[in-house]
């Protein structure tokens, strides 16, 4: 035997942080019509950004160390595939198409079957989320808590004006679109390799798998860092407001620059 055993090459260790991700991009986006009449929801572009939502997500994932992404397609999948074929993508992309509705959990499991490293952790994101924060920090949070699944938590602004009163019922102030007192599921996840087997073949993992993991204290919640931008693009109003927000705050740390 030659060479010093102390300096001999070691077996390749699994990366601590995920290098693979699933993007759920199969929704019809009915509340975004007419923008989604001729394209799937993730192909909608926020005015002023120069890129569709899916393009932003893939760039973000690549910047966070992801090398392989599986995109789960459905509604108008050919339009999304055509864009992927022509785009200069920063990572390797595989697409899968559900031939029949499997539900969110079933769709996630179906897409995860095409991940290149099934024995390693993975990220997942809903295809209608426009956000930018450190996925590496979220992965570290996930590992430190020895969780099977970790979901990002956002505190969105309430779309109505709030009224502040004192204990006697006197109105003290009017607050326009205050932050919600509740955290919500932000649609971005870190999953351990073992999570895939816990997903239903059909149905919604948020009604089955997540509650089970929560009872077992194996589900973690990662609050988005203060100042991180997050918005779910569900309606035409969301598009308009996101365009204003990104145009007005793009110079802030952690936000994508409009093109």
Automatic annotation (TrEMBL):
The answer to whether UniProt assigns keyword Cytoplasm to this entry is no
Q: Which domain of life is it from?
A: Bacteria
Q: What Pfam families does this protein's entry cite?
A: NTP_transferase (PF00483)
Q: Which residues form the Nucleotidyl transferase domain?
A: 21-246
Query: Per UniProt, what is one GO molecular function of this protein?
Result: transferase activity
Looking up Gene3D superfamilies in the UniProt record yields: Spore Coat Polysaccharide Biosynthesis Protein SpsA, Chain A
* Keyword terms of this UniProt record: Transferase
Xref: InterPro entries: Mannose-1P_guanyltransferase, NTP_transferase_dom, Nucleotide-diphossugar_trans
Q: What is this protein called?
A: Nucleotidyltransferase family protein
User: What is the organism of origin for this protein?
Assistant: Streptomyces palmae
Native organism taxonomy:
Bacteria, Bacillati, Actinomycetota, Actinomycetes, Kitasatosporales
């Amino acid at each position: 035997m030659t060479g010093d055993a102390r300096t001999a090459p070691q077996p390749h260790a699994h990366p601590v942080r995920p290098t693979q991700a699933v993007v759920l991009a199969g929704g019809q986006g009915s509340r975004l019509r007419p923008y989604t009449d001729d394209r799937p929801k993730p192909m909608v572009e926020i005015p002023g950004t120069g890129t569709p939502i899916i393009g932003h997500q893939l760039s973000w994932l690549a910047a966070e160390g992801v090398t392989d992404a599986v995109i789960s397609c459905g509604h108008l999948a050919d339009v999304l595939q055509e864009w992927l074929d022509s785009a200069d993508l920063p990572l390797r992309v595989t697409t899968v198409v559900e031939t029949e509705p499997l539900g969110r959990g079933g769709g996630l499991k179906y897409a995860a079957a095409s991940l290149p490293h099934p024995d390693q952790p993975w990220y997942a994101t809903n295809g209608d989320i426009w956000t930018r924060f450190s996925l590496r920090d979220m992965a570290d949070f996930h590992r430190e808590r020895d969780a099977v699944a970790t979901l990002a938590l956002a505190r969105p602004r309430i779309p109505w004006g709030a009224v502040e009163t004192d204990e006697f019922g006197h109105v003290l102030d009017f607050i326009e679109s205050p932050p919600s007192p509740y955290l919500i599921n932000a649609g971005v996840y870190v999953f351990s390799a073992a999570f895939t087997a816990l997903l239903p073949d059909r149905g919604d993992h948020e009604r089955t798998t997540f509650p089970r993991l929560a009872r077992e204290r194996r589900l973690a919640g990662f609050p988005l860092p203060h100042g991180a931008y997050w918005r779910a693009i569900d309606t035409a109003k969301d598009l308009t407001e996101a365009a204003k927000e990104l145009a007005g705050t793009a110079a802030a740390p952690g936000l994508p620059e409009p093109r």
